[in-house]
From TrEMBL:
GO terms for cellular component: cytosol. Pfam families: Mannitol_dh, Mannitol_dh_C. The gene is mtlD. Residues 1-196 form the Mannitol dehydrogenase N-terminal domain. This is Mannitol-1-phosphate 5-dehydrogenase. It comes from Buchnera aphidicola subsp. Uroleucon sonchi.
Length: 386
């Protein structure tokens, strides 16, 4: 069995690549970073150090190779592999769609009737369905029936923390946390479902997707933006600040109240889930950089994303959202000259003001009360963090 994985970064190598390798797949990594491609092709293996409260384990990942996404040979790989996965970031999915489409066309022209399943492992609700729509927009209509019959786009919820790692010419080591969760929509596979270790099948994925996005990712993002206001560097530094810790905890509980209402989660179990997330944030070996967590703020402020979506849910169920509002306000203060979205956000606020910017970003889905609450927090949050 062969798998093509787009994205040879920390999630790609530390979670997806490791899991697929342990499941018996030969893995081809596709990336734009030629340095990491060269390293993978030279060493043909790398190591993952798994860390937990009482666990330190090294696993060697072998039977791997790499290819540049711009290399035309990648279409050959797409037409021949059994599985495609991605961990490239939401903003890159449209570019990946172009590459996958060309590979599918080659597969069709070769008369291949072998099914192919594609799983986009991104922090986006139904990322694989989004990728499918992007492919269908490019793929000629005459090939749509083939795609619907032989190509599966499988939505998933993926949950783990893998901090950024610096690779060099002799070390591709990745540090990964012991906790990992990969839940997929069993209804979307084509052909035989591949046997992948620890991958759980679900016939109702939405509760798992939202639980992860609106708990872990919501807390992660809010901690990062509040921490960056204090000029902290890592998630552990941020979460150890009592003020930040309290806002993040309360925000996750506000978001959790929405999930409990919507999906009838057990309140006690969900509060324990939040406690476990704090333990993960505090893991010395997983203390990720705040700039990495907070990057692409416009994406994170979308109406279906981790900061605005729980507020919309709070409005729907008439629940409080004061701390979630503080998280949004902190995100609006984020500025990084190396982050184009952060610069665009700052430009929008300067040009339109905070109120019109928020309405524009969230597609006018917030009501006046929520806008007022966020706006008030926007002007207070800097002082509150002092």
């Amino acid at each position: 069995m062969k798998a093509l994985h787009f994205g040879a970064g920390n999630i790609g190598r530390g979670f997806i690549g490791k899991t697929l390798s342990e499941s018996g797949f030969d893995i081809i990594f596709a990336d734009l970073n030629q340095d990491i491609i060269n390293l993978i092709n030279y060493y043909k293996q790398y190591s993952v150090k798994t860390v937990g409260i009482n666990l330190h384990k090294i696993t060697d990942i072998k039977k791997i190779s790499a290819i540049n996404c711009k290399d035309e040979k990648i279409f050959e790989q797409i037409s021949a592999v059994d599985l495609i996965t991605t961990a490239v970031g939401v903003n890159a999915l449209n570019s990946i769609a172009i590459i996958i489409t060309k590979g599918i066309i080659l597969k069709i022209k070769r008369g291949s009737l072998k099914t192919l399943n594609i799983i986009a492992c991104e922090n986006k609700i139904k990322a694989s369905s989004f990728l499918k729509e992007a492919v269908l927009k490019i793929l000629p209509n005459k090939y749509h029936n083939y795609l619907n019959q032989y190509i599966g786009f499988v939505d998933c919820s993926i949950d783990t923390i893998i901090p950024s790692s610096n690779h060099n010419q002799s070390n591709l080591l990745v540090i990964a946390e012991e906790f990992k969760e990969w839940i997929v929509n069993a209804n979307q596979f084509k052909g035989i479902i591949p046997k992948i270790l620890d991958m759980k099948l679900s016939h109702d994925l939405n509760p798992f997707i939202e639980r992860k996005l609106l708990t872990l990712n919501t807390g992660h993002a809010i901690a990062s933006y509040l921490g960056l206001i204090k000029q902290y560097k890592t998630i552990k530094e941020a979460i150890q600040n009592p003020k930040i810790r309290m806002i993040v905890k309360n925000a996750m509980e506000e978001s959790g109240s929405v999930l409990i209402k919507r999906y009838f989660f057990d309140k006690h179990d969900h509060l324990n889930y939040i406690k476990k997330i704090f333990l993960r944030f505090e893991n010395n070996f997983l203390s990720d950089r705040l700039e990495r967590i907070g990057r692409n703020p416009l994406q994170k402020l979308g109406s279906e994303e981790r900061l605005i979506k729980p507020i919309l849910g709070s409005i729907e169920y008439k629940l409080p959202y004061a701390n979630l509002s503080k998280g949004v306000a902190a995100a609006c203060h984020y500025f990084n000259c190396n982050d184009l979205e952060s610069m665009k956000l700052a430009s929008l606020i300067k040009e339109k003001g905070i109120e019109k910017t928020l309405m524009h970003i969230c597609n006018f889905k917030l009501n006046k009360e929520a806008i007022y609450c966020i706006k008030k927090s926007y002007y207070e949050i800097i002082q509150e963090m002092q």
